[in-house]
Amino acid sequence: MKRSRIFPLIIFFIISSFVYPQTLKTEFPAEQQIDVIENLGKYVPLDAEFIDEDGKVVKLASFFESEIPTVLTLNYFECPMLCTLVLNGLAESLKNLTLNAGEDFQVITIDINPNEKTLFANQKKKNYVNGFGLQNIKDDWHFLTGDQVNIKKVADSIGYIYYYDNQRDEYMHPAAITLLSPEGKISRYLYGIEYPTKDLKLGLLEASEGKIGSTLDKIILYCYHYDPYKNTYTIFATNIMRLGGIFTIIFLGIMLVGYWKKDKNLFDKGNLNVR
């Protein structure tokens, strides 16, 4: 190829490298992006005010008086698809969860559409409690609606970025749930539309900061850690080896005590025979 043909191509690629990113920014402005910016360790605004599924005005703080962890979801009740998939995935996991609602955890679903009112929340709750056989959780899965100011306060606190698409007449939002400590501190995010019961349970145990779960549950949690790349809890080999070492020391200690007692008894019997 002649130099006269190569030079225009070089100029074209140089210009494209500047123009293309600008085109992307024009097509996808900052206010039309969806994402989750993890704010682990930060707190949700407990002073945020909402209306529950029964029409009662409540502050978020009122749900954090029982010292149990919380599953927080942000959805809207007339969502045509994604919200339903997220809530269905959560409901399926809750069906098989071996923790007790009200004693070990609670669920809060906040509507991101300020135009949806109590009627929507009440019906949505009935759909999930009855449709998934979750009678055991009906008093501890709260469906809240509110104004834009309070919704945004909560969304911003957990880094939940969404927007309203005028052309589609729907909200565009990420698929994720957030696990909170008994004090409202952000502990873990779980992504996607399916939440394995194992991950949900381990996430709640972790979020509880030792306040729920049996001794066995806490040992199991010690053997796992959350892998953000796989979006699941995986075996933590280092802690398993540490735990194995502890049990080995305990076992050897018991064995040594047993041998010591046996030798002591033999020694005492020997002294009696000598006498």
Offer a concise description of the structure.
It is built from seven helices and 13 strands.
Sketch the topology as an H/E string, one letter per element: HEEEEHEHEHEEEEEHHEEH
Assign the CATH topology of the domain at 32-209: Glutaredoxin
Poorly predicted regions are: 9-28, 237-247
Distance between the termini: 113 Å
**CATH evolutionary superfamily of the domain at 32-209:** Glutaredoxin
Structural class: alpha+beta
Shape: globular
Tell me what you see in this structure.
With 275 residues, the chain is of the alpha+beta class. It has a domain at 32-209: 3-Layer(aba) Sandwich (Glutaredoxin), CATH 3.40.30.10. The protein is built from seven helices and 13 strands. The strands form five sheets. The protein has a five-stranded mixed sheet with strand order 6-5-4-10-11. The longest helix is centred in the C-terminal third of the chain and has 38 residues, at 237-274. The protein is globular and about 70 Å long.
Question: How would the blueprint of this fold be written?
Answer:
Blueprint lengths: L2 H25 L7 E2 L12 E3 L5 E3 L10 E6 L6 H14 L10 E6 L6 H14 L9 E4 L3 H10 L2 E2 L1 E3 L4 E3 L3 E5 L5 E6 L5 H12 L6 H8 L1 E4 L4 E4 L1 H38 L1
Parallel strand pairs: 4-5, 5-6
Antiparallel strand pairs: 1-7, 2-3, 4-10, 8-9, 10-11, 12-13
Properties at a glance:
275 residues, Glutaredoxin, 44% helix, alpha+beta
